[in-house]
Amino acid sequence: MATIGRAFAFYVKYWHEMQDMNEHGVEAFAKALRQHHWEETKKQIEAVRERANEQAALLIKECGEAMKDRFETLGCEVYRETRESTAEKDWYVYYDLAKQGRGRKAWRTGMGACVDCPPDKRTPSILLRLWTPTVAGVEELEGVLGECVCRGADLTGWGGTCVFFAQVPIELSCWDNWKRLERDGKRLVEETREALKKKINGKVVRTLLSL
Q1: Burial class (CB in 10 A: 0-12, 13-18, 19+), 169
Q2: How high is the pLDDT of residue 33?
Q3: Dist CA 124 CA 140 (whole Å)
Q4: At what angle are helices 6-13 and 178-199 packed, to 10 degrees?
Q5: Mean pLDDT (whole number) for 71-98
Q6: Phi/psi class of residue 149: alpha, beta or left (left: φ > 0; alpha: ψ in -120 to 50)?
Q7: How buried is 182 (Cβ within 10 angstroms: 0-12 exposed, 13-18 middle, 19+ buried)?
Q8: Contact indicator for 4, 169 with CB cutoff of 8 Å
Q9: Do 88 and 152 form a contact (C-beta atoms < 8 A)?
Q10: How distant, in Å, are the alpha carbons of 43, 88, 196, 198 from that of 49?
Q11: How far apart are CA 83 and CA 64, in angstroms?
């Protein structure tokens, strides 16, 4: 079971500051924080980030497994596409989808989960997405999904042919208490499963596999 660690919780708590650090570099960020001991601060930040990557990967992979279970239950063949290093570095997992009995070579669509901050939000979330080959496919999916979070084009680094259909805000009860964080990790995975039950049904899957 996923356990949110203190490093990942720290990253979530200071999400926008950590994103600025990634954009401008650890060294510049460390110097801005502590001019006289910036080398020591840089090492500390890098250690936190490395540990946060490991912890985020555990959480997002478990959420990905929840997605895999849901889609297999509804008649899909599901094949994991992302590497372990991608889950740690970029905090997302992705799966190819194919009709049952068709095999991996028949895949045309996909789905996945990531940690990112939705547009106009301060708190990062676990975002669940579907991918199609075309923008027209996204529009068709939105018609059967109902209200969605946003399209991929609305977030930096995601393509225009995917749609984020659900979000689970990463709201932590306490960022430095490991017992509470363990409960938070389990809760987030369960909330992901509930979001999937609510949004992904047979009609959505049939539409997705027909694109």
Answers
A1: middle
A2: 60
A3: 27
A4: 70
A5: 90
A6: alpha
A7: middle
A8: no
A9: no
A10: 10, 10, 29, 34
A11: 13
Q: Are 173 and 184 in contact (CB under 8 A)?
A: yes
The length of the chain is 211
**Segment (H or E) for 142:** helix 135-145
* Six-digit token string for 58: 């555990």
Q: Check residue 176 and give its pLDDT.
A: 66
**SS3 category, 111:** strand
CB count in 10 Å sphere of residue 85: 10
Separation in Å, CA 15 to CA 56, 170, 185: 13, 11, 17
179 HSE (CA, 13 A, CB side): 0
Q: Where are the beta strands (DSSP E) in 49-108?
A: 76-80, 92-99
pLDDT category of residue 19 using cuts at 50, 70 and 90: confident
Lookup: tokens for 89:
């570095």
Q: Give the N- to C-terminal CA distance of the chain in Å, as an integer.
A: 34
Using alpha carbons, list the distances in angstroms from residue 105 to 11, 102, 131: 38, 8, 17
Question: To which H or E segment does residue 165 belong?
Answer: strand 162-169
Query: What pLDDT band is residue 3 in, cutting at 50, 70 and 90?
Result: low
